[in-house]
Amino acid sequence: MKSVLSERKALHPPNIDDIEHRELPGTAAQAVRDLAAEIARTSTHSAVNASEPLADPALLAQISTHAGDLPAAVRATLRPPATAAGACIVRGLPLSDSEIGPTPPDWQTAALWSTDPGRARGSLELDIAMLLLAAAAGEPFGWAGQQDGRLVNNIVPAAGHEFEQSGASSTVLLSPHTEDAFHPQRANMLMLACLRNPESVGTTVSSIRRVRLTRPHQDILRTPTLPILPDVSYGSAFERAEAVPVPTLWSEPGHEDDPGSLTLRFDPAYTPLDDACPEFREAYAQLERELERVCAMPALRPGELLLIDNDVAVHGRVPFTPRYDGTDRWLKRVNIRLPEHPRRAAESRENGYGQQIVAPFPPAPPRQAAPAREVRNERNGAVDDRGSIGHT
Length: 392
Hints:
Elements lengths: L19 E4 L2 H17 L14 H11 L4 H6 L9 E5 L5 H4 L6 H7 L8 H16 L1 E5 L9 E3 L18 E4 L11 E8 L6 E5 L7 H8 L26 E3 L10 E3 L13 H16 L11 E5 L3 E5 L12 E8 L19 E2 L34
Parallel strand pairs: 1-2
Antiparallel strand pairs: 2-10, 3-12, 3-13, 4-12, 5-11, 6-10, 6-12, 7-11, 8-9
């Protein structure tokens, strides 16, 4: 039932020049690390939250309060992606390999190690730094049904999960997908932070605003036809739940004829494509081919962040052979909501398969639109003021 992109597909060579690059100024980057260290050092955790400090209300209150004390350059650098690529790489977060300790064998071990005083000191500090950065960008949140509701997820290869479609896989191509495409409260922006990537494993990024689709194919994909199910990280009992068909594509209101306004909701591994008519399957297959054609594959380096517009770009990962020796690829992930990008009204009728968000931070203030002269559309050179885009 579940369609997965073929591993035999030859993805295009890395083309990271197509992705916007930003540099976090040195003083601002160090301020993030220093503040994270200070919060970790001065915080005391109640016994009930001893195993998960990032669930402690007092610690979260410190992060929320002091995120506003960071240099203005942090918020400016962590603004949403501003080009048709739907993604950007932020460089400059100070990070040393010695401070993070070995790559944990799974996310559960990563959570335990973050509170173990015998382990490297950097893990909890980096989790706090991730939340400070995410709070500067918008409103960080987690999922009650994923990684025990943790706000900062650890993405590491796990033995026994090599071939599944989840962040714990490795030897299989992780299909390009919208993060948590099944849910109406999915992130507007995804932040992936690289701690370790010794084999330069590529993260795939493809933007719907770079594809070429015929109008008939677009019209088919705009029609709610199939549901999208939760991925395996949420469990496996969701096919029996009420499934609501959702559109794969839609446009900003009033811009239906402008390919530069397309947004998408896409997860072929968890979409029951066999239930659709041949016309829909062909349109969907053409979309897959186009997303493959425009794919970029940045190989993140330690200290780099990848910001992904979750309504414009899909992401995945190329296959790699895990070592399971403490040196494997290790990313941290934070989901971010942006109040200036509300969801379409139709999505409020979806049940989200009962999955609830964990949102302990107050709503972030909406960002002001960036000056039009600062942002140019890569597709045709026209002004592309992403701050004005609202998904309603």
